[in-house]
Write a structure and sequence with these properties.
heterodimer; A: alpha+beta; 2 domains; 7 helices; B: Glutaredoxin; Rossmann fold; Ubiquitin-like (UB roll); five-stranded mixed beta sheet; binds flavin mononucleotide; binds iron/sulfur cluster; binds FE2/S2 (inorganic) cluster
């Protein structure tokens, strides 16, 4: 696990406290914790429950409702490939299958070197330059296998 | 100093706009040219992105689609004065894709620096707010009502009536919640505004706040839009520092504060009550109505929930007047609609126009048919819950009433074009699958029905009791349509049944992998 993602209860408490004054602070807290620790771990759930005066089950319920929140950190690089209709009209399903085969993973899988996780996503608002993806949060459009491969190589080299 | 404009809209970035900007900067340094690079939103001509523009004595001249390796040759050809080049498109506003449009909501997008208050003001920004402050709350609501503006998020509900309900409901505090969850495939207009003209959304929401007596607003932006979130939060900071948000806005005595919240990858959180639950920090489970959000919305207070585009239309309505806005459009569909042409289409992008063009005109003439060059076979209108239109319905006028008369949906204005290689049974299956993935789980027809829908279609395609399963599929769709609490489960039958009705030949049994068909037969 990369050092940046090491759990630190004091830091987590601090993050929760920074947001606790907001109206409806739950999602901002979860996003901030995931940003810091790469996921929302079980230990974090307890701290949030305590700070917001909720049960752990309630917090757990929120964390698991949303596709974004992870229980374990993902790889240092993340490729989110769009599977929605506009991208499908431009062949995204075949493209995704080729990318997954080339990387030797399934959806939500991480490559054997632990460097890259591949996730499905349903529309990135890049539907007129499809097929589209986000690589480490940066948008990619008019994709084909060569372009994705090149972008992945660049990301790994950086 | 010559200004060169390079978009930083996410779709432009996706096709290399940052590399283009870097290449221009390098070239400018090497040639020691007096150039200022201005990053803008997108004009919405995505087939031309990256589209750069240079300011000349004769107006702005565009070049696109440009790649980083074109930049040296562009400078060699006299880019600085708009010189001839194979990529030169002339004045963007005279390009056929733009010249036929009526840009009200998107008047500034792609033209101004989205984070420059001076640019925004110079292009008519804040004039709607100034008039709103002058005429006061009840006249604001009356003006919006008179404009005929209908919600651009999906349901097309009259915006003025919603505002009036909130204005007439007394409470210790009220909210404005902007729906920027834009989950529909084929749509990107909200994203373009947040990245390209964020002050317009701030202005629209502030006018709404003053109109209905709300002092706090939230923008709920989907997390799939990190760039929109970044630009918008920067715009909030700038507007706040300049006194356009906060207590006593521009010395008017009105208070309005605005906060950005990011969603977390749940499509259902675009449904307004689910969005409110999410803003409150809960699971995004849809609420039963009544109570309406206008009576009991966010934190049980009266709340206006409006889409980004509805709110961004408001400064124009206030500045130019209700009659001006209502002067565009068709029948009961007033004003302009930012149509988003996407998918397998030659000229994909944002096309803002009064209602009333036919679907065929939009897809064939404006969109130029498919990008693949093959025949257009189907167009999904209004997102993943909208029907698939075959060519035989291409004479349908694009407006709320005409579309609903043929079971169609204008929705948020998305059109996704497919060529003749599309497998419509697979698209129907995908609609069910998407519903199963995104269902909030509150009601059985949606939660269970969508999963059953996938299975039934699989059986049809495997040739397992095909005729019976087609009947079952229709039956299931009816159960979902009439038994679901919200339009996720309730509308997913539209894409499914339109595929069945118009493209029945695609539901013929086909060869499946042997193991797959054995498994299906065993499950029967
Ligand atoms: C499943 C589902 C998803 C929706 N997604 C959105 C969305 O992403 N953006 C939006 O503005 N409205 C969406 N809506 C419609 C909203 O519930 C609501 O009608 C709209 O935000 C009201 O704003 P308007 O009157 O300005 O259109 C969705 C509705 C449903 C049922
Ligand atoms: S129809 Fe589906 S998404 Fe809508 S309330 Fe019911 S279960 Fe939730
Ligand atoms: S459908 Fe893929 S980006 Fe919109």
């Amino acid at each position: 696990m990369p050092e940046a993602f090491a759990w630190d209860a004091e830091r987590a408490k601090q993050i929760i406290a920074e947001h606790a004054g907001l109206e409806g602070p739950m999602l901002p807290i979860l996003h901030a914790l995931q940003e810091e620790f790469g996921c929302v771990a079980a230990a974090a759930v307890s701290l949030i429950a305590e700070a917001l005066n909720l049960t752990r089950a309630e917090v757990h319920g929120v964390v698991t409702f949303y596709h974004d929140f992870r229980r374990e950190p993902c790889a240092p690089h993340i490729l989110q490939i769009c599977r929605a209709e506009a991208c499908q009209s431009m062949g995204s399903e075949d493209l995704a299958a080729a990318v997954l085969a080339k990387l030797g993973v399934g959806w939500h899988g991480t490559t054997r070197d632990g460097e890259l996780t591949v996730e499905p996503v349903y529309c990135l608002g890049l539907c007129a330059t499809s097929p589209s993806a986000l690589l480490d949060g940066e948008p990619l459009g008019r994709l084909n296998l060569d372009k994705i491969t090149e972008a992945l190589e660049e990301a790994r080299a950086a | 100093m010559t200004r060169i404009f390079v978009p930083k809209d996410a779709a432009a970035l996706a096709v290399g706009a940052n590399q283009v900007a870097a290449s221009i900067a390098a070239e400018v340094r090497a040639r020691v040219l007096p150039v200022e690079i201005v990053r803008t939103g997108s004009r919405g001509m995505f087939f031309l992105e990256p589209l750069i523009e240079v300011e000349t004595a004769h107006g702005r001249i565009g070049y696109g689609p440009v790649s980083a390796s074109d930049i040296a040759s562009l400078f060699d050809s006299g880019l600085m004065s708009g010189g001839a080049h194979a990529l030169r498109i002339g004045k963007p506003e005279e390009h056929p894709f733009l010249s036929g449009q009526t840009r009200l909501t998107f008047a500034h997008c792609g033209i101004i620096d989205p984070l420059s208050l001076a640019d925004y003001a110079a292009h008519g920004g804040w004039k709607g707010l100034a008039r709103a402050i002058e005429i006061g709350p009840s006249a604001i609501v009356a003006e919006v009502t008179k404009s005929g503006l209908r919600g651009r998020g999906g349901a097309g509900f009259p915006t003025g009536i919603k505002w009036k309900t909130v204005a007439d409901t007394s409470a210790d505090r009220k909210y404005v919640a902007c729906n920027a969850d834009e989950g529909d495939s084929g749509t990107f207009a909200d994203r373009m505004i947040m990245e390209g003209d964020p002050f317009a959304l701030i202005e629209g929401m502030t006018i709404c706040g003053i109109g209905v007596g709300a002092t706090k607003g939230y923008v709920y932006c989907r997390s799939e839009y990190p760039h929109a979130g970044k630009t918008f939060s920067e715009a909030l900071r700038i507007a706040r520092e300049a006194g356009y948000l906060g207590p006593n806005i521009q010395g008017s005595g009105f208070t309005f504060e605005l906060e950005l919240r990011m969603g977390a990858g749940a499509y259902i959180c675009g449904e307004e009550t689910s969005m409110l639950e999410s803003l409150e920090g809960k699971r995004g489970i849809v609420r039963a109505k009544p109570p309406l959000p206008a009576h009991k919305g966010l934190f049980a207070r009266p709340t206006v929930v409006n889409n980004v585009l509805s709110l961004v239309a408001v400064p124009t309505v206030l500045d130019r007047g209700a009659e001006f806005y209502a002067g565009f459009g068709f029948g009961r569909s007033r004003g302009t609609m930012p149509i988003q042409i996407a998918g397998n289409v030659r000229y994909g992008g944002l096309y803002e126009t009064g209602f009333g063009l036919t679907l065929g005109e939009i897809v064939d003439s404006i969109g130029g048919g498919t990008l693949s060059g093959r025949p257009v076979r189907a167009v999904q209108c209004g997102g993943p819950l909208g029907a698939y239109f075959p060519r035989s319905l291409f004479d349908t006028p694009y407006d709320y009433e005409a579309f609903s008369a043929c079971d169609g949906l204008v929705g948020h204005g998305g059109l996704v074009v497919f060529d003749d290689t599309v497998d419509m049974a697979r698209m129907a299956r995908f609609a069910m699958e998407f519903c199963a993935i995104e269902s909030c789980g509150k009601c059985t027809p949606c939660r269970i029905g969508a999963t059953r829908g996938v299975e039934v279609i699989d059986r049809v395609l495997a040739g397992v009791k095909t005729a019976e399963n087609m009947v079952l599929l229709e039956d299931l769709c009816n159960t979902m349509k009439f038994g679901s609490l919200c339009a996720l489960g309730g509308f997913v039958p539209y894409p499914v049944m339109s595929a069945v009705r118009h493209f029945r030949e695609d539901f013929a049994p086909r060869a499946l992998a042997a193991a797959e068909s054995r498994a299906l037969a065993a499950a029967e």
